[in-house]
């Protein structure tokens, strides 16, 4: 990482970092020299120098009718950062208070691997609400999670009396899945696979929406907790549900 990049991590933008480095190398100098060294337009340098002066990173030294500029010693950067940290510590309680009273924000959680997918399903059981789902039965049942899905998860859902309304691409495995609906506390409707060949699973439950991918190179899940997003996804599910036999 270059010096310029490192200065940017301390809060300077790219051009401010270039101007500070140019000034540091040149010593006491004019705007024209800084602009030439930093390869930035003189008008822009004037504007950004004012920002650096306010941060005490550049000092103005008048000489007659002209103004010259001198970069602060590098050790002064530590003082600047310390002052910013002090300011942050002072306003942090107010910022946290504002965060607590602000409207509820959507919460997003990511899960990876087989155990991650199981955690997503566990959340649907914990929530205890009926589930509206889009399920790619063929994809899910060909995944390493087949035993968990057909035994443990289904049994947990039945025990909790959680009803599932599933829309799935029409395929042989999906038909077998549909035949077990009554036994597995579920209602399944099939949608033409050639028109809707989706390969992930979406569960809508309570104020949450879970997305799960079962592909070997993309075994992951995402839970979004948002009343508005869940409501909209439920309406999309309802739209298809009412059009299917």
Keywords for this entry:
Arc Repressor Mutant, subunit A; two-stranded antiparallel sheet; Endonuclease, Chain A; 245 residues; alpha+beta; seven-stranded mixed beta sheet
Structure description:
The chain is of the alpha+beta class. The chain folds into 2 domains: 3-77, Winged helix-like DNA-binding domain superfamily/Winged helix DNA-binding domain (Arc Repressor Mutant, subunit A); 107-243, 2-Layer Sandwich (Endonuclease, Chain A). 51% of the residues lie in helices and 21% in strands. It contains 10 helices and 9 strands. The strands form 2 sheets. The chain has a 7-stranded mixed β-sheet, sandwiched between helices. Strands 1-2 form a two-stranded antiparallel sheet. A hairpin with a 6-residue loop joins strand 8 (208-213) and strand 9. Helix 2 packs across helix 3 and helix 2 crosses helix 4. The radius of gyration is 30 Å and the shape is elongated. The chain starts with a helix and ends with a helix. The mean pLDDT is 89.
Question: TL;DR of this structure?
Answer:
This protein is of the alpha+beta class and 245 residues long. It is built from ten helices and nine strands.
Look up the CATH topology of the largest domain.
Endonuclease, Chain A
- The portion of residues assigned to helices is 40-55%
Tell me the domain tally.
2
* Main β-sheet, spatial strand arrangement: 3-9-8-7-4-5-6
CATH class of the largest domain: Alpha Beta
Q: What is the CATH-assigned architecture of the largest domain? A: 2-Layer Sandwich
DSSP E strands, number: 9
Question: Order of helices and strands, N to C?
Answer: HHHHEEHEHEHHEHEEEEH
Global structural class:
alpha+beta
* Biggest sheet layout: 7 strands, mixed
Q: Based on CA inertia axes, which overall geometry fits?
A: elongated
Q: State the CATH superfamily name of the largest domain.
A: Endonuclease Chain A
What proportion strand?
Answer: 15-25%
The overall average pLDDT, rounded, is 89
